[in-house]
Amino acid sequence: MTQTYRITLLPGDGIGPEIMAVAVDVLKAVGRQFDLSFEFQEALIGGAAIDATNSPLPEETLTTCRNSDAVLLAAIGGYKWDTLPRSQRPETGLLGLRAGLGLFANLRPATILPQLIDASSLKREVVEGVDIMVVRELTGGIYFGQPRGVFTMESGEKRGVNTMAYTDSEIDRIGRVAFETARKRQGKLCSVDKANVLEVSQLWRDRMTALAEQYPDVELSHLYVDNAAMQLLRWPKQFDTIVTGNLFGDILSDAAAMLTGSIGMLPSASLGESGPGVFEPVHGSAPDIAGQDKANPLAQVLSAAMMLRYALDQPAAATRIEKAVERVLDQGDRTGDIMSEGKNLLGCRAMGDSLLTALEALAQG
Ligand code: NAD
């Protein structure tokens, strides 16, 4: 029997609509192969939503997302909206979506594909075999803590304030996701904090240490964030799963992304306790190349594969997509961001066509 899923599509801004179109074609093709049917509903977020409704996250968008099985997001933001007040900025829509769906866990794999080792700025022996999962807390910490704002003091001087705060329960729930994730991988979890300076980090470290007792099969270690940044570049293969707070995770996951050569290759999943998860590339809306058919659609396509695996429980269809990505890379197809000598330079649409051909070939066996 055909299985039907309701998927909300949020193409957003910049290269978003271009890469989303490729992912939708890939999902339709793989759906035909595995007897899956998708009801796609498109909704507005970010700059596109500001232009149409004056809000970066219209209530209608949140409702549509809540009523779906999963949300596939591309990217938001662009120069045009950079000068708006913070409450009306595209990023506020993204934070609102995460909060509105209770997405407290962000899973970002940084896996180096053998075909792209030379696209990394690090030496082959350093990056070969890197396979890291960064589990980032997404709805707490300094991005949400109160008080926040820019206040004028009695002296007339302005003072900008943000607050980094975590409760026991916020730390425990992201900790459990991380321990469970590590358990399914190599069983090694590194918790990253700044416990030598920050009280909030000391609490983080204490809770992670306490949780470890419930996961005797997972080996827990701790690193300060500055050392973690250094170790990621020095010897990334020492890491299996990393768990960290919102701010440190934002920065470290981008650093981990660059180990793999291009931010245009990396998917992510944001999950809550229940309800639909959001699946999106790690990269932004790349306004510098938007509308030029230059974007790499592979992170978006791999996000769709993560959606099939984590939200829709269709691992075979997910693997088929991942294999198609490997196949196009094997045959030398590259977008500009991962281009190297002797390879075939393709635009976003042509890369999509190549993926569809690869999917067809894989279905033939
Ligand atoms: P970015 O990720 O958009 O771009 C960084 C660089 O990587 C650019 O040179 C870009 O051309 C390139 N790049 C990114 N994705 C690519 C792809 N798929 N194919 C080829 N090249 C790619 O980051 P930025 O320039 O710092 O931010 C641009 C806008 O995106 C800003 O408005 C920012 O707020 C927003 N942003 C959104 C998200 C999100 O939607 N989750 C994340 C990060 C940044």
Q: What report would you give on this structure?
A:
Strand 1 (3-12), helix 1 (16-34) and strand 2 form a beta-alpha-beta unit. The mean pLDDT is 95. This protein is α/β, with parallel strands linked by helices and 365 residues long. The radius of gyration is 21 Å and the shape is globular. The chain contains 12 helices and 14 strands. The protein folds into 2 domains: 1-106 and 264-365, 3-Layer(aba) Sandwich (Isopropylmalate Dehydrogenase); 131-258, Isopropylmalate Dehydrogenase (3-Layer(aba) Sandwich), CATH 3.40.718.10. Helix 1 packs across helix 11, helix 6 (168-184) crosses helix 7 and helix 10 packs antiparallel against helix 11. Nicotinamide-adenine-dinucleotide (NAD) is lined by residues 15, 75-78, 91, 94, 263-264, 280, 283-289, 295-296, 299, 335, 337.
N-to-C SSE string, H for helix and E for strand: EHEHHEHEHEEEHEHEHEHEEHHEEH
Rg estimate, integer Å: 21 Å
CATH superfamily of the largest domain: Isopropylmalate Dehydrogenase
| Tally of structural domains | 2
The total beta strand count reads 14
**Strand count, sense and closure of the main sheet?**
10 strands, mixed
Spatial strand order of the main sheet: 2-1-3-12-11-4-5-10-8-9
Termini distance? 23 Å
Overall geometry comes to: globular
Q: Which strand-content bin applies to the residues?
A: 15-25%
| CATH architectural category of the largest domain | 3-Layer(aba) Sandwich
Mean pLDDT: 95
Low-confidence stretches: none
- In the CATH scheme, the class of the largest domain would be Alpha Beta
CATH topology of the largest domain: Isopropylmalate Dehydrogenase
Structural class: alpha/beta
Small-molecule components bound = nicotinamide-adenine-dinucleotide
